[in-house]
Each structure stands twice: as C-alpha cells, then as structure tokens.
Amino acid sequence: MLRRLLPTLIALGCGLLALTWGLVSLQRIFAQEREDARAQLASRRHAIEEFATLALRQTLGQQLKGNLPALHAAMGDPLAPGEGFLLNFRGHQFLPRLTRSARGSRATAARHYRELVKAFAEGSTAEPWGERLGRLRAVEAALGQGRASRAHALAEELLRYHAEHPLPPVQELPFVLLMLERLQRGEVTPPLVRALLREGLPEDFGGIERSAGLQRDLLRERWRFTQPDFEFLLAHVVQVSTALGEPSDDFLARAREAGAGMLVIPENLPGPTLIGQRWYVEQQEEVVRGIAVDLDALLRDLAQELRRRNHFGADGLVRLRDSEAMQPLESLWLEVSVPAWTAAENAIEQRYGLKTLLVATCGALAVAIVVMAVVAQHGRLRYVELKSDFVATVSHELRTPLASIRLLAETMERKLSKLPEMRDYPERIIQAADGLHFLVENILSFNRIDKGRWQLKPAHVKLDELIGMLRSDLVGNTSVPVQLSADVGDVELEVDPSLLRLLLINLARNACAYNRRDPVELSIRAYPHEGHGCVVLFGDNGIGIPESEWENVFRDFYRLGSQGPEVHGSGLGLALCRKIMALHGGRISIDNSSPQGTTFSLLFPEPRHERPEQPS
Asked: The pTM is what?
C-alpha cells in the first residue's frame, strides 16, 4: 500500500515545504514589526522613569538636609519632638526614642512618694531624706511667714544640697515632685523652684549630674520606672505644671510618643538608602541619620509634576519597581504605569496575535489538506483491501459448511439405511447448518447496528434466564464439551434480550474456538458497581489474549492469530459485542488475560425505573 501512496506523498510534501517556507518568512516580518513598536514604547518609558527616579533621589536628600536642625534638637532635648527622626551612633539608637518602661508592675517611686509625704507631715528625719525634709520644712515655713528673701535663700541652700547629694532616680524624682508641690505658690513661686520643673538648675549649682528639669528627667529616666510608676509620676508632674502655669503639652506628647521601636540598621550602608519604604537614611562614618518619609505622597507629587510637564495623562501612576526591605538610592528605580501605554502594548500584541493566527491557520489548513488527502487515499485503498479480504473470508466460511452439508446429506442418503455408524450424520448436519446460520446472523446484525438501523427493544430481563438460553444454545452447537458455571443471583438487566443473547453466544463460541483444554470452562459472575447498574464478568480457560492486542480484538474484521490448527471466523464477533454494549449505554473490555484464560468485563448502566401511574 505504501508503494501506491508514494507519488501522492511526494507531491504533497513538496507543496507543504514550499508553503512552510513562505509562512515562516512572513512570520519573521510580523515579529520584527512587533519588536520595533515595543522598542519605541520602552525607550519613552525609560526616559520618563529615569527623570522620576532622579527627582525622587534629590527630594529625599533635600528633606533630610532640611530636617537636620530639628533632628539635632530632638537628640539634645527630651521635650523636643523626635517622631520621624533616626539617629544611630555606633550601633546605639538615640532616635526614634525607645519609650518602653521597665518590666514589672511594682510601683516603687509611688511608694517612696507616699513615704515622703507621710514623713514630711510627721516631721520625720528618716534617711535618706532627713536633711532634705528639714530644709524643705524651713523653706515652706519662711514662705508661710511671708519672708520671701529668707525663703529664696533657704531654697537656694536646699537646691545646692540637692545637687551635691544626688539620690537614685527612683528616690530623687519623688522628692523633687514633693518639693515642687510644697513650695509652688503660683506666680510668686521662687524662680529656682519653678526652674526645677522645665529648665533645671543653673550651671553654677554643683553636683555630680545637674538636673535638666523634672519633665525632662522623667522622660530620660523612663526606662528605670515600671509603667505604673511612670503613669503615677506623669499625672503628678502634669498637675504641678498646671498649678505653676507651665506648659505640659509637649511633655505629654513625648510621654505618649509611641516611637518606632528598635530599627535594625546594617553596619555598612552602601550610601543613602531607603529602608522599608518608610525611612531614608544616610551614614557618615559612625553616625547614621535619617527621617521618616511618606513615600506614597512623594510618588503622588512626582506623578503630578509629570502630568504638569505633559509626560502622561491624569491616569498615570509612579511606583517603586522593587519592594525590597533595603534599597540603596543608587540602585533604586521608579516604574511609570500609564494605561495608554499598556493599551498601546496590548494593541501591538493583538495585531501580532492576529497575524500569527492567520499564519498558523494557513499552516493548519495546509497540513489538514495533506492529512485529509493521505487519509482519503489510504482509506480508499484500505477499503478495497478490506472488501477483498471480507469477501474472501466470507466466501470461504460459507463454502465450508455448505460443502459439509452437501457431502453429509449425500452420504446419509446412500448409506444411512446400511450402516448403523452413520446415524449421527443428521446431528452433524444440524451443527454445520447452525454454524452457517450463526455466521450469517452475526454479519446481518453487525451491518444493521453499524448503519443505525437496529431498533432497540429494551426489557427487564433476569440475567439467570439469559444464561439458561446460553446453555441451550451451547448444547449440540459445539464440538467440545462445555462446563458453564454462573453466580448471578437475582440480577436484573434492562436490555434487548435478543442482542444480549447474541453477545453471550459470541463470547462463548470464541472461548470454545480459542481453547486447547477439555472441557471448556465458562464462568459468569455479576455484582453491583458503584455509580452503575451492574458488572458482569465472563471468564474462560482459553489460550488468552496478549495485552498488546486487548483493544485490537474489538476492531472490525480483526482476527487474532493462534498457534495450532486454523480458527475459522469472520473477525466480527468481539466488534459486534462492543457495538451491542454501546447501544445499551454500557461498555465491554478485557479485565485480565493470561495463558490460563481470559475474563471480559461487561459494564451495564443503572436500569430506568418508571413511576407507576397515579390512580385517578
């Protein structure tokens, strides 16, 4: 057959190669057009992105430079705003301020304050506040007697003693708070006493560590106090500030300042860096300075500037290309998103896709034409061969039983009355006739089903009854003894009885034909199957079917070769079985096969149960 197809294949191949070369060349032209259009858009995008990136770098540097005075002020003064500033020296963070209190719930400072109040009221001189309390009582007495100059002198002596003999902050701050509460007299409060609240003691007051004012000292030493202690002292300091008419808003703001917590700064920054898209930092030797930035607002301002310059429309956006935690400014790059550009890119891709689709369609059509031509030619030649093979096979198969019938009939006519051993000829004549009838029935049934002319007549049939019919069909119609065992219970199928009977006898006859054992053993089992009505397993003890042929044996006119004597047949038995199962909405397949036998699996659908009519 290949030799007959060779001229056609050569002609079609040459034409297909020429068409392929033309389509490939055309596709290359389309691809180059697309790349040129995309390169123009990319060049414009890159220029605008470069402008936006340089503008952002310059803006960040200017913002940090403009905030350096406020940053240094926040470093030196606890009352100065420190939010949004970063100052790190030798790995130690000064800004943002770490505003956490000490762990625990003890209120030691509050307890010391209450002890001081009680000792002052009782005139106690208990240490470590004895000397201080005595001097404080003297100042208060002088104020109560209206001796202002004496009170100021005594207050100065008290403060010098306080500066020269400092106590731990947990004891010192409660005493300063008590001193302010006892000596405050509104507008006539001694200046040195008033200075204890915010400005602190003058420089000429000696001591190990000069006070910077109660408000600043409490903020600086917050880490030494637990949260209950801090809240206690905070409330009393605010009360004293109100009584003295001193500002406390900034003090409260710093006390409530949440801070940013500890910020992890790499040891060696590669230059100005954007950290977490929130902080902009610069490093000079061992000092790292930075400010909090609103990157979204900066990007919006950049987008507005680009709109003002008519680089894109109102729907354009500017965003960071990368969202890494740490981005050095020298490698930072902005990405510009403009819907009009995206639409233009999509239009380029759509045009390229349509052109590609056109090329692919032409190629597919060419291949389809070639395939159809080859298939048509092959089908024509195959049909001729199949028809020839079928005619030869059927002619041979019909000739054999007819010759047997004629020979046996003539012999019976001459010798039946003379020889007793010839009396089984009538039975053999019947077997040969039945074989011929079965062959003709298979061919006619296959043709009717294949052409769609079979009218299915389904009925509820018990499988056991069909097996009984199979037993009857096998009696006298086979030349070898057959043992049929069945385990089907009360299984009921909704099938066309005549078709299913034809299916079972085909399986049985195949089992007898392809068998080398005596007797032939057949088994039929049935059981329910999940999602289906029933599975019927038909087994035999024949020579088996190679696994590579499990699907081929169901093809039309396909005959499986066997070792030993020739097996007669038309090659339609199993093909007819598959068509019968498909007609019923089921399927047949080989479940397993070996030299010990083959098992066919017949899967039937669930029977349709009709609702009984309701009585009127």
From this structure: 0.48
